[in-house]
């Protein structure tokens, strides 16, 4: 199966190239760039062993030469291209936020971009693989989750489903490495401004809030609002979220362990850590999500920690996991390598 990448010059695109190159069933198809032509090595010297070039975006040619199309493009791009590709029968996996929200006005409010038409939004399946894998198997448009929502929802959903926490008390404290912001030049991402700095941002509203609330509400069966504050950390890769919520129904730490074990017993990429706290270094370069939990018996507060690599489980790794599910291959195909350590 040939897989094209639109946005192949970005960080998500480069990670997809790396993963597809080692995939047992996928082959690199067209590598689309709207700004670059010429060899991949000119943009990414670390990929100089890959004898391929970037090409412009020509829809008919792209669809004729590829089976599967990944979009790793900024917000507002996929909403335009996905309908054209899907109408030509292609499977589309979108790494951007364009198809994660079901209501166009909500997308417009949080992303400030023109949304895809509502009927197209409804056709997309949310690719949080461990929760919606059965739907992904049948989907033509797979909307890959955001990096923060992936780390957050994987930790939060089992507790919401089990009614182990009070849904009105959820606080999500999140931290990300700089690759989460993409490869584009931005003054705020200069070494001198990021190094030795810990920066909260979008405290007054991050675009991942409605995505987290949509799927938390769906699983809990009630409308949920969360507090979410992201921080930029001077490291390349990784996300760590710490979630706080009030315990309900007097659940014990053993009950929480049982909830997580029951839910994730068959999930190859979820590593449940008991009394060992997740760290970004322990998942770096891999598709794992490490989750641990604790109850403060004095305050009745549940504390859950979750770590992923934002470019892997938070983007390209999960996109490949979804391609595997969709195409009927073992879910782990091309993703079984261990984290890079140290
Ligand atoms: N970085 C991360 O950790 C994560 C990113 N995401 C999402 O994935 C998507 C890609 O992210 P990332 O790789 O980091 O971003 P980058 O900024 O690194 O790359 C985006 C790429 O999109 C291409 N592009 C820009 N404008 C257009 C356009 N109008 N039409 C077609 N292609 C265009 C650019 O390539 P060129 O100019 O060569 O065409 C660019 O290389 C984004 O939506 C992001 O929000 C999701 C989860 C995690
Ligand atoms: C560190 C950093 O800047 N991270 C980005 C991650 C967003 C992202 O990946 O975009 P989607 O909305 O498409 O998921 C941010 O917080 O905006």
TrEMBL record:
Pathway terms, separated by semicolons: Amino-acid biosynthesis; L-arginine biosynthesis; N(2)-acetyl-L-ornithine from L-glutamate: step 3/4
Superkingdom, taxonomy of origin: Bacteria
Keyword Cytoplasm belongs to the record: yes
GO cellular component, one term: cytoplasm
Active site location: 147
Keywords: Amino-acid biosynthesis, Arginine biosynthesis, Cytoplasm, NADP, Oxidoreductase
Subcellular location: Cytoplasm
Listed InterPro entries: AGPR, AGPR_AS, AGPR_dimerisation_dom, AGPR_type-1, NAD(P)-bd_dom_sf, Semialdehyde_DH_NAD-bd
BP GO annotations: L-arginine biosynthetic process
Catalytic activity: N-acetyl-L-glutamate 5-semialdehyde + phosphate + NADP(+) = N-acetyl-L-glutamyl 5-phosphate + NADPH + H(+)
Domain Semialdehyde dehydrogenase NAD-binding: 2-139
GO molecular function per UniProt: N-acetyl-gamma-glutamyl-phosphate reductase activity; NAD binding; NADP+ binding
EC number: 1.2.1.38
The family this protein is said to belong to: Belongs to the NAGSA dehydrogenase family. Type 1 subfamily.
Function: Catalyzes the NADPH-dependent reduction of N-acetyl-5-glutamyl phosphate to yield N-acetyl-L-glutamate 5-semialdehyde.
HAMAP family named among the record's database cross-references: ArgC_type1 (MF_00150)
Protein name listed in UniProt: N-acetyl-gamma-glutamyl-phosphate reductase
Species, as recorded: Thermoflavimicrobium dichotomicum
Lineage, opening ranks: Bacteria, Bacillati, Bacillota, Bacilli, Bacillales
């Amino acid at each position: 199966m040939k897989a094209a990448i639109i946005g192949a010059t970005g960080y998500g695109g480069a990670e997809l190239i790396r993963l597809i190159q080692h995939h047992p069933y996928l082959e690199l198809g067209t590598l689309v760039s709207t700004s670059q032509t010429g060899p991949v090595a000119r943009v990414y010297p670390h990929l100089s062993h890959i004898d391929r070039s970037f090409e412009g975006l020509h829809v008919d040619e792209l669809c004729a030469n590829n089976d599967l199309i990944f979009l790793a493009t900024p917000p507002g791009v996929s909403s335009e291209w996905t309908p054209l590709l899907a109408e030509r029968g292609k499977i589309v996996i979108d790494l951007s936020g364009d198809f994660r929200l079901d209501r166009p006005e909500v997308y417009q409010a949080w992303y400030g971009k023109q949304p895809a038409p509502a009927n197209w939004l409804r056709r997309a399946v949310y690719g949080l693989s461990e929760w919606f894998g059965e739907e992904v198997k049948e989907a033509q448009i797979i909307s890959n989750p955001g990096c923060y929502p992936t780390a957050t929802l994987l930790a939060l959903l089992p507790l919401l489903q089990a009614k182990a926490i009070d849904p009105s008390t959820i606080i999500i404290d999140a931290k990300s490495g700089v690759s989460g912001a993409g490869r584009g030049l931005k003054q705020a991402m200069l070494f001198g401004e990021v190094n030795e700095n810990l920066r909260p941002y979008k405290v007054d509203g991050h675009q991942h809030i409605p995505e987290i609330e949509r799927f938390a509400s769906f699983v809990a069966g009630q409308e949920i609002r969360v507090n979410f504050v992201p921080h930029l950390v001077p490291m390349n890769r990784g996300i760590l979220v710490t979630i706080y919520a009030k315990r309900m129904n007097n659940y014990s730490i053993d009950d929480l362990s049982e909830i997580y074990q029951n839910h994730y017993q068959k999930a190859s990429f979820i590593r449940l850590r008991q009394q060992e706290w997740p760290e970004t270094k322990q998942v770096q370069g891999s598709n794992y999500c490490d989750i641990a939990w604790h109850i403060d018996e004095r305050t009745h507060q549940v504390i859950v920690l979750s770590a992923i690599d934002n470019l892997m489980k938070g983007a390209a790794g999960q996109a490949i996991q979804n391609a595997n599910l969709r195409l009927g291959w073992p879910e782990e195909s091309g993703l079984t390598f261990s984290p890079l350590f140290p």
